[in-house]
Design a protein that fits this description.
Layout lengths: L3 H5 L10 H11 L17 H26 L4 H12 L5 H8 L3 H13 L3 E6 L2 E6 L1 H21 L5 H17 L3
Length: about 180
């Protein structure tokens, strides 16, 4: 089930359990400067590899900026992702949320437990499923944090024209669809 929020901002709020590994890898990769290539090294710097490095670097920068913004609202990145998904899909099941965010059921249970303690969400039982809703406090936080994040992300992409942003989106969609996990 795709939601309007995810369609409007594809991939922006979806996370995977690979995020930490990607962050550690990109930190190591970008902790050194690229030196001029020798003839033997030229095969190591193919356009695909350089594009991947650039993409990872941009992701790392945006992720760090976003994490600072989330902390201003008292949220971790994972909690923001949950808040954004539940806010866009009130009544989503806990299982569907875990699938959407690409995390384990155990991981999502911990995050939801903390957010429930903080008074941001409530769980209701519907048969064997837990349906998730924002509380009034959670909804207020959603309306403060999510639009601010959207503005922040849009500002980070301002160096690209609208046409370039659309081209980037098309290229990333092609790449995303061509790679299976």
């Amino acid at each position: 089930m795709r939601d309007a929020f995810a369609d409007r901002y594809p991939g922006l709020y979806q996370r995977s359990n690979l995020t930490g590994r990607l962050r550690r890898l990109t930190t190591r990769l970008f902790s050194y400067k690229l030196l001029p290539m020798t003839h033997d090294q030229s095969q190591l710097r193919q356009p695909a590899v350089l594009s991947w490095l650039r993409l990872a670097r941009i992701y790392q920068k945006i992720d760090a900026i976003s994490a600072r913004h989330f902390r201003e609202h008292g949220l971790s990145t994972a909690q923001f992702d949950v808040l954004a998904q539940i806010g866009a899909n009130e009544g989503i099941s806990q299982q569907q949320l875990a699938r959407t965010l690409l995390v384990t059921k155990g991981n999502i249970s911990q995050i939801l437990g903390r957010m429930e303690q903080d008074g941001l969400i409530r769980r209701t039982h519907a048969g064997r499923a837990n349906c998730l809703y924002l509380t009034d406090t959670g909804r207020n936080l959603y309306h403060a944090a999510v639009p601010a994040q959207e503005v922040r992300i849009a500002a980070l992409f301002d160096s690209l024209s609208r046409a370039e942003q659309q081209q980037l989106q098309r290229l990333l969609r092609i790449l995303d669809r061509s790679i299976s996990e």
